[in-house]
Write a structure and sequence with these properties.
The complex is a heterodimer of chains A (277) and B (295). Chain A is an all-alpha fold and 277 residues long. In chain A, 81% of the residues lie in helices and 0% in strands. Chain A has 14 helices and no strands. Chain B has one domain: MetI-like fold, CATH 1.10.3720. In chain B, 76% of the residues lie in helices and 0% in strands. Chain B has 295 residues and is mainly α. Classes of the chains: A mainly alpha (277), B mainly alpha (295). The interface between A and B is large, with 90 and 96 residues.
Amino acid sequence: MAAHAVTTHNRRFDLALRWTTLFYLGVMVVLPMVTLSVQAARPGFQPFWRALVDPYAWHALKLTFFTALVMVVINAVTGTATAWVLVRYNVPGRSLVNALIDLPFAVPTVVTGLMLVVLYGPTSVIGTVLGRFGWGVIYHQPGIVLALLFVSYPFVIRSVQPVLMELDRAEEEAAATLGAGAWTTFRRVTFPALWPSILTGSGLSFSRALGEFGSVVMVAGNHPLLTKTAPLHIYGEIESGNRHAALVVSAVLLASSLLILLGLNALQRRGGVNHGD
Amino acid sequence: MATDLSLDESNLPVPAPNLWQAVRPSSLGRGLLVGAVLAWFAILILVPSLALARQVFLGGLKPFLQAVARPEVQRAFGMSLGITALATVVNTVFGIGLALVLTRQRFWGRALVDGVVDLPFAISPIVAGLMLVVLYGPEGWLGRWLEPHGVRVVYAIPGMILATMFVTVPFVVRELVPVLRELGEEYEQAAHTLGAGRWRTFWRVTLPSIRWGVAYGVTLTVARSLGEFGAVLVVSGNVIGHTQTATLYIQEGVESFHTEGAYAASLVLAAISFILLVGMDFIRKHLEGGRENRP
């Protein structure tokens, strides 16, 4: 009888827990998203399209995707190489580097931006030298890519690392025994096992880069049609009371990120990709 | 799949030297790769951090301490810490609950809920802020109903708390779901068989087993809350001196060329995040250790 009472009590507890947590998630996450989407779509397709192809909004979106793409290409290569070195080579100080990889996740984005301004800004040593050659980093597009590279540095590394650790090295050794060089072995044996995790890390960093604001606002300055990325554009439109324009660009960013997330989910389900941790 | 033949390396017969030569990339290539990776890490991550520290201490320690002691800096940090504490407590309680629901209960739509938890990661902080303004603002669906009752959310402190809570929803859940899955249900079921209720089972069995996972999620939540900028910026309205967190203070300082305070506050935030990172590394070792020692 006591056991029965406990079971009934437990069932009630489970239901209460389920509905409380789902309610919290619904109010906190789902409701704001639905509201934003509805408000963006409410005036109809014509106004939505007009706000989207507005030259400033369109340029901001193009710049966002372009800088994110440049960042992802660099990060996919350097991230894979870094994961490789951390897993395969016993470099002195490896555990220290491994612990510091996540620094960009811990440092506030505004602080990241400020660091880059201090180091590469027009008045800094590096900035002055580069300026003599006519190269600008801060308040120019390369600064945006640099900020994105910093904030998304850990994604590919943390996604590739566990897969590389669990990879059976016998296949690589067999390839080498059969006379394949290091590069051929990597291309033909290791890479096919790694690419889903490289893609996952790249997708996560791309999604992060699309929305990055704090660091970019510091390094990009405020030049419309030159360094204004989509999040900066959205903020500008909110500030000037142009809410519908802000909502439209937001909806596009939101939809892009959701598509990436869905794609990664499908990839994971298909290949059983080993995720981050 | 190949069978796992992970043997103790010392027991393996030493391979013929020429085989090792073939297996390992040339030491030159290896050295170049290691050098390039470490150089990239240093240039991208370390040098900017050190540049900030150098900039702050250019004039010595005293100006730094003076800048940190300013009342507006203290107020901003107080605000950041308060918001962080609230958001962390709420999201930790909720995160543990939802992780338990996701791993211990079966219901229709569970996979969907699992995906929804991650959404705040995919949403730009600016967009998150805008969402809250649209929902809780004076003309918003909820705001229209709340404001006449004297509850002001947007352009006030509750909005900043909500924004911080929104961006940190996934951290504890994401950390705990794999930990709870790996832990399995046997211990909890044993407690149940012995007549323990859910509450007692949680405190006596589940929580002690997942405490390092909780600690890791909490650390991530604290780091993100302290550093949150975009979402808080949009909902705060950024009224000078009124509702300002540390990150808002930094941005305003840079914008208005009062950079000493901004640099000093940035360095303090960077130092805090470094400490949190050390904590994360410590916790991760415990997490991995626990995984190996589990029966």
